[in-house]
Write a structure and sequence with these properties.
InterPro entries: ADC_dom_sf, DUF2071. Pfam families: DUF2071. This is DUF2071 domain-containing protein. The protein is mainly β and 251 residues long. Helices cover 14% and strands 49% of the residues. A hairpin with a 2-residue loop joins β6 and β7. The chain starts with 16 loop residues before the first strand and ends in a 9-residue tail after the last strand.
Amino acid sequence: MSSPASPGQAPPLGSTAVLKQRWSEVTFLHWKVDPALVAPYMPAGCSPDVIDGSTWVGLIAFQMSKSSFFGGPSIPWLGDFPEVNVRLYSIDGRGRRGVVFRSLEASHLIPVLVARAAFGLKYQWAAMKLEKHDGKVAYLTKRHGQPGASSHLIVRPVQEPAANLGLAADPVSTFLTSRWGFHESHLGHTIYCRNHHEPWPLQHAEVVYLNDGLLAAAGFEGLADRAPDSVLYAAEVTTVFAAPQKRNRTR
């Protein structure tokens, strides 16, 4: 959970880093929703995290690269690919805030299988592409065997520093992006896995195009039919993960 004095700054990881990754060209689309809409998807012991009476559903797209384990060299074939995920916002009985992934699209099959087995994460194998052109960033994904679970997103990040100056102190932007762990149901338990990275270099962004089926496939039919309530972008951060912390109660 982030420090009250510096909400955008990650607290110390608390244990040895087991995985390191770079996340770049990160786009955050978010829709404000009633907490009752996401409550059925919370792992045991968790509830929707709320700000100003609402919680949020996120569609997050980025490029993952430079993955390495236990301080070793990066392994390009294992951890260099685009990812698009649908995520929710959680808090557990110990006050630990995190995210809950409804789905995660990745174009490499081996990491998909490893993440599903090791953490119970809902990774899906997909054909994916990320491109940058004329100040815009485009993400395209189509899940293998489920063509309706696809997304085509194009955004234009706002480059004027003055326009982005207030984002670091904005409570909603901090709530949506400064999340230092994930909750997941795995083998009948709820696990919590911590991460740490530098503060997000957030920018506003404009949605140029969105045709999305991932939100509906994740249980949120019709949500993509309205414009997102928040659109943010970040050039890159380097992230480290600790091993999952002690497991909570079973279901």
